[in-house]
Fold this protein.
Amino acid sequence: MNNNKKYSVYFTVLTALCILFFVLDILMGSVSIAASELFSPSNELNYNILYNIRLPKTITAVLTGAGLAVCGLQMQTLFRNPLAGPFVLGISSGASLGVAILTLAFSGSIATLGIGGKISFIIAAAVGAGVALLLVITLSKNISNDVTVLIIGLMVSHLASAIEGVLQYMSSAESLQVFVLWGMGNFSNVVWDDLFYFIPIILVGTVITFFFSKQLNILLWGDNYAKSMGINIKQTRLYIIMITALIAGTITAFCGPIAFLGVAVPHLARSLFKTSDHKILIPATLLIGIALAIVCDIITQLPGHNTVMPINAITSLIGAPIVIWAVWKKNKYS
Amino acid sequence: MKRLPLVIFFTIVILFSCKQPHKETTIESDIIRTFDTTTIEYSQHFSIEYKNDLKLVHIYKDDHRKDTLNTFVLIRHNASIPDEYKHAEIIRVPLKKIACLSTIYVSYLSQLQLLDRLCAVDNSQYIYDKTIKEALVKNKVSEIGSNNSINFEKLAALSPDVVFTYWEQGLSGSAKLNELNIKPVLVIDHLETSPLGRAEWIKLMAALFNEEKNANDFFNELKANYLRLSKLKDTVQTKPSVLVGTKLSDAWYVPGGKSYMAQLINDAGGNYLWNNDSATGSLPLTFENVLKQAQHADVWLNVYQWKKMDDVVLDDKRYSYFDAYNNKNIINNNARVNEFGGNDFWGSGLLQPDLVLSDLIKIFHPELLPDYQLKYYKKLE
């Protein structure tokens, strides 16, 4: 079987899985609803649960999975480091700090900020993410060692978290609650009105990423090779960072920080497709990210259980072993 | 016979020293006057046992009084410690100085008129009561931070006899406090499920100051009021169904069927929708689950920061699926909240469950208390 044939089989299977999980996520939940209700809900309660509670939640899982996975892939390629990802390089911490400054320093709450507040959350998170990542890039501009760059990223993360800690210590109980709840992360708070902003941003962001697959491939070979190929490295880096900050910042603003999806999924894509070609890796990462995020969401609300588990516990529980497995496997063969 | 003066001297010394213990026992017999006593009727998490010259306090982790967290021996300042308690945790009473790391414990002191013994609180921002706040300023009460961020230097300088605080899987600073010769008294009032049981912890505070009589007077009146009010529910025909709380992040934390809030609602003649549940804490439920159970609930209580009806749908549009929203029957326990978010419902409200109960009766069955004005609750505008 040649590669192209293999890839098309994989992509078909992955797409089918995504659709299957999507439908399952809408059909499964703590309230049991028959599958026949899906197209003609028999009462208002079932309609609301299916179309206004579960559907937006599932779409949010799709956007988050796709967005974070693609961001993770870009970061891993840009830094040539398997541990890179939105969470490791300070984007999430930066976004958190942005929201912390908004909610704590200005002591606003979601209720008092209103719908304008939701947009201000997105802006605060995106600006925070961008600033953190730009700081990492600027500091690591003249550094060739990947590990050093990673350390700088981690330290910027820690710095942002520390400032957050100080802000939390000094703020009132009420605004603290808004921030702490935001920081727990979840897919279920997003409503249709939010998706009106959320869908286009993630869609545009991921589409732009596709146009960068050639540049990402070249970056993998190192800066000197990229230069010899006539690529403006500084500009390319800046663009990739901006897209990543926009996608990860938006996701973090709507859902709070979501752990490990961004780091784990690119590893799964690489080991499944056994390629480093971004023309293949980007769609592969996208699909695996979607499937994994929906599975995590299904696990948080297992049918038959009335209670709900935090999404971040589930993503970490699944994501961390994947990263361990990927790193272990890579070292075993090399 | 050179030694005669010496012999006489020693004889006198011995005679006097023989008298000494006798004299001491007369003093001690003054000391050994019985303490005022109190009986614990509702609390599941502590007990006080009176022996003639000491009090034994047990604090229990579970609500069957089996798993003991701590035992304290309360004994007067100049009384000698009986041998069997040589290695026990001794607290000399009445306390001279105390530090309280939660607002509610300050309310106990205020009720017992002992605020002058308070030398430190965790953070005075969250105290709602103005007279307490003024007293704190007047008595120069310090702020020393909460359980996990105690300022030990400040605390050592104040050197209270006791730090009175809540138990949360232990207290990281316990060893440090013992080193500073300050006794940590860790209490579990927050796990009490009966409203009267929770208010009863004032009796423990009173025992530390030998003020049992005061506490009894307060508690007996409270109890009589509460029991009288809770009998009113027997006269009502229909009980409104009640929903509590809002979604916080992923989960809607609904108080369990045997929780503090559930008991108050039932005692006030409300039909709490999770009555059949046996949990004493809260249940993290999904939004859809709560919607299914409570979409037709008559009354919706305790909704955190919401103040106006507009806040509800601004927070999440989907709250409009509840009848209580459409009928504008959302009542929040935020009538007494200060600018820092300190809510008196969790302050004096815990010590006056009869008033909280009156509020709830007024909400569920206004005709039963026609002249009563809501104290802790306020309808969303």
Notes: The domain at 3-333 of chain A is CATH 1.10.3470.10 (ABC transporter involved in vitamin B12 uptake, BtuC). Chain A has one domain: 3-333.
